[in-house]
Amino acid sequence: MKFRIKYADQIVGLFVILAGLLLVFILILAGGKQRWFSRDYRFTSQFNSGSGIPVGTPILYKGFQIGRIERIRLNQMNTVDVSLIIYQEYRDRVTENSLLELVTSPIGLGNQLLFYPGKSAQLLEEGSFIPSFDTPAGRTLVEAGLVERPPKDDTITRLLSNVNPLVENINATVVALEKTLTILNSALEGKGSGPLAQTVQEVATSAGEIRVLTQNLSQTVQEAGPAIRSALQETGTRIPQVLSDIEKTTASLASIGKNLEATSAALRDPTGLVPKLLDPKGSLKTLLDDNNQLFNRIDNSLAQIEQALTNLQGATAILASQMPRIAATIDDARSAIVSAQDVLEGLKNNPLLRGGIPERIDPKAAPTGLRNGDF
Hints:
Elements: H1 2-33, E1 40-47, E2 58-61, E3 64-74, E4 80-87, E5 99-104, E6 111-116, H2 136-144, H3 155-188, H4 196-268, H5 273-278, H6 283-288, H7 293-349
């Protein structure tokens, strides 16, 4: 028991210090993850539309997030002004002639905001404008070769772009075939203006072109098959995760529903706390309906407290005004004590008083009568 009483303050102080150090460590760790102690560099840009670039959209460079969208605003020219942040460790990537590009997946897998650094060695000043590929200035940088923009290797987009010319050729061929058939019918009916052989040759040529176009279309579909299959597999792997999230959300909603049912049951309970408080004969009604007696008592108590504080303030002011006199009195008393000590020291060192002061002998009282004396 004595050991615990003797070292209780030290042990408590040690635990308080350890708790403070642990709290500081946790704050530093959380701040490092939340980038509280890192500097961010701000730049501006412009896009034709705000679709796909909400606030918080990550800015990617070769798969790494180097910044994010901080704010978007629709300006008077019906274009979108964007304020973005670049992290401190990627500041040296932001050079002159840099470019931003919003890439949209053709099969609906989301958007990506990509960053391409300029080929200049001069760093771009903070707050400068970084053009986007949507603007004429951005396309001019790409055409002039002033930005490191790698060629796109999107197989699906390339295949879809090849399909459109094929479809246009097929449409043109169908129109030519219809025209040829019309001429052939007219020639067979004797209404044609050209020879029948030329018409038949045109029909054969059109059939050959259709055969070639059909082969090209089949080859294009075969090339697009693996890419489309890979995209469908990736979508299939994401579906279980989405279903798991939906199940967790459903479980949370069920738990909230149970809590609401318990709360509703407590409110419906006629013997519960809420009906007792709201009962016209309950304690709350009794306290509130007392002809302001409780309010008057509270008001009187507050007035007494205010008066006591006023008296205390006056006493404090008087004590503050007397402090110089009290200090002077204490100094005088201290000086008198020092002088008395000097006098006592002098008396102690006096050779005439080295033997000290003899003890006083109380005289015996004289006898009051002859009978009380000693013979």
